[in-house]
């Protein structure tokens, strides 16, 4: 999230799109309801009538997978009707920047599309700015970029955007999405009303936006919209991802993604990083705050390899395993597994036998493993895959180990919420039986591996020399404080814990495991440790910032890009909700939040105790100082690999042809071979309905925990599908009947629920039925049921590889009918 949950009280209009906070983020919903009580409006954009939609002022039903049409339509409406926030757009976005005149958009694709060995990629050369100098050498310097401040030049970003979205008129959008034109106009007007200095519009999104072959472009479309309305960096605004598992934010911060190192530093790739200097040259921007990335990387290497990491040996850069640039995401791994390329797997706190796409094929792929280790609270479907209903255990050779793990209440550690706020939690109860904390398991596993390497091995150095100093004399549990200090960062010589990432160096004198968390553990006189903070007292701002409650990365900043909350001269757009303000008389910044820009230069003489920082005047500050060009990108010259502007494509499995261009699907979508290649054709007669998957309040994820909880298992005991009354009539079923749902990949049997949750939509004159299914069931636990993922396709977004869980083709019939 750019903002945070409590900040929702500052919002005037919410647009919740592809998120159902009432069921999946009840704490977020609490703040939305508080804002509504003060007069805020709520728009919910969802194919289903969800519990959130039930609380909405306007519910926009749209066909799954058509959000870009809906949002680009709104962007077009805003530009056509002059509803954008002009000063913001001009000064804080790249609207006036001129783009290479060779840039083109034709037949649904952008210039630079190339194909090699059957794989499509974009060469982004023509997407770049017109500028002086060599950006490869000097970076994307804002001063060097050619501009047209009148926004009239046909090659300026504003005109390119305007032309691009002009095709998304109300009629076209309605034909694609199935949303009536009147509803579109109503919500466009309502949300566009926030494009004023004293109004805040808040976009809340989650999996209905991301789980598509163009999930990243869906997010980009939302960012473009919010930039146009001046809603980024202000109280009550932002683009706010409602994240998943209680600590999924924390786990991505720590690189539980194959293409990142901790703190969102790019991964090291074999093909381009043979030495440290290659990384510094190619992946450390020349401009923006990211120009400090080298310090973050080198400090991380010092944290991992300690004294062994020296300037002379590239700080042991060679010891980090390099990515081979193959698909190492969930789907890539399971596809390799099916081909017998993977020997063993540790399923550590995950249940892919239920949660992965095409899970029927996924479970079959697991049979190719020599061994499987499941680290979990329960014997999940994954741990039990070898005796699953459809398998013959005598034919499965995989050796399965089960390591019982402690649950969150049974161990210590931090959790980071969607708003980037992290807090330390203490242990409430001891884990049962032989269950151990994940840290204990990781510690013993590492030590066992190290022991093996002591007698030789192919590449023992990184293992034998890894800093692993977490033993606490006389205690079983590893020293979690020591782990926290390593993450926070310390001075290598004095061992002093660092107050923040500004102190990190690239000369080997500092160590820091994850730069964005730097400072979180540094001692805070009042609170003990910063992360232990639980003080609600000090919110002088009245804006819900509560700086003493939890630590918000980075630097305890609550609202990122907050320079944009004030005009170029430093006067808050909305004086009632000021985050930062230039005091012209005193000649300094007055800040309620930690500034997201350089508000002052450090004292000239650091040794002089009386020396003071020098304030940086407003005209010398940069609104988006994490971006190389310092501006919000309406047009993305980099960052996404599948297009500089969002464009509507159909889901890979779609009931209709793309009416907007010849390009049916996202050209770069990730696809797989063999067992994972099965896809229905466009407008398939055999699979005429649109399937989509969602969560329910009673169950968590694959249901491993909640389906083992007797009360929850009882109140939500059956797998079901929501269908409309018209579809129910057509196939002759009523609520509670058994139905068979089938896709090209497999079929499931479950109960049917007939209500107004799903209704048919009129798409380009054709009636399209939507079937909604929860994906939380499986064959283990107290409440058992069919897994919706036996139906879902293995295709993904080219930037993130997230699977297209939210839109696919299926058929449905009454069980027992042929
Ligand atoms: N009770 C409960 N809470 C949870 C979880 C849980 O399993 N149970 N899981 C947690 C996790 S890991 C996550 S990631 C979050 C996810 O939180 P959400 O994203 O809110 O969860 P979903 O229900 O999967 O999807 C949200 C909505 O997207 C809608 N949708 C489907 N397709 C589309 C589309 O194409 N466009 C639009 N606009 N909407 C669409 C669905 O109908 C659904 O109502 O929830 C977290 N919280
Ligand atoms: N069709 C469809 N599929 C989806 C989605 C969808 O919307 N639609 N959503 C996707 C999303 S957003 C997500 S996040 C994934 C989730 O997919 P998974 O992560 O595979 O599913 P979970 O059920 O969350 O698995 C977590 C496991 O961790 C165990 N566990 C809980 N606490 C601990 C602990 O402290 N330590 C250890 N070691 N184990 C613990 C639980 O018992 C459970 O088995 O599913 C994805 N799958
Ligand atoms: Mo998630």
From TrEMBL:
Look up and give the organism this protein is from: Desulforamulus putei DSM 12395
Q: Which residues form the signal peptide?
A: none
Ranges for domain Molybdopterin oxidoreductase come to 2-447
Alphabetized GO MF terms: 4 iron, 4 sulfur cluster binding; electron transfer activity; formate dehydrogenase (cytochrome-c-553) activity; formate dehydrogenase (NAD+) activity; molybdenum ion binding; molybdopterin cofactor binding
State whether keyword Iron applies: yes
Q: Which InterPro entries match?
A: Asp_de-COase-like_dom_sf (IPR009010), Formate-DH-alph_fdnG (IPR006443), MoPterin_dinucl-bd_dom (IPR006657), Mopterin_OxRdtase (IPR006656)
Keyword terms, alphabetized: 4Fe-4S, Iron, Iron-sulfur, Metal-binding, Oxidoreductase, Periplasm
Q: Please list the GO biological process terms of this entry.
A: anaerobic respiration
Q: What is this protein called?
A: Formate dehydrogenase major subunit
Protein location: Cell envelope
Query: What is stated as this protein's family in its record?
Result: Belongs to the prokaryotic molybdopterin-containing oxidoreductase family.
Q: Identify the main location.
A: other
Which parts of the sequence belong to the Molybdopterin dinucleotide-binding domain? 692-808
Q: Which GO terms describe its cellular component?
A: cell envelope
Q: Does the keyword Metal-binding apply?
A: yes
Q: Write out the biased-composition intervals (Basic and acidic residues).
A: 595-610
Do you know which Pfam families this protein is assigned to? Molybdopterin, Molydop_binding
Q: Which Gene3D superfamilies match?
A: 2.40.40.20, 3.40.50.740, Dimethylsulfoxide Reductase, domain 2
Which cofactor(s) are needed, names only? [4Fe-4S] cluster
Domain of life assignment: Bacteria
Q: Where is this region: Disordered?
A: 595-620
